[in-house]
Amino acid sequence: MRLFSTTFGLALAVLATFAAVGAAATLVVGSSSLAAGNSAVTSCGVSSLSATRTVDNSGNVTEVDVAGIPAACSGARLSLTLTGSGNSALASATATIGSCGTTCTATFTSLGTVAASNLGGYAFAVQG
After folding, report:
1. Would you say 30 and 42 are in contact if contact means Cβ atoms under 8 Å apart?
2. CA dihedral sign of residues 97, 100, 102, 108
3. pTM exceeding the 0.90 threshold for the entire prediction
């Protein structure tokens, strides 16, 4: 009976491994899309974004404008994270990208109190 339990357990482990490998084999990664099974997710063509900040008289960031968003991203959500030393998050916000011509711009104003001297960079993510 003990031999049967051991053999049965080993067979279940092997079966679970093959099922996991088979599921991963359906994942297709391309340069502009990610697909699993029959659902596809396409990129809206973001290659590079630029950001400019507005600083008040106290030295705090009051606004960040993100430019260079492709028009194909209209309707998607843009997440912005202000980063400090060691890429630590100082503040973050999201905005919905509106309709626009060739390229879009998003403005973020609700970032809390972030000293411009602590700002090391920006991190972006388009979700759509």
Report:
1. no
2. negative
3. no
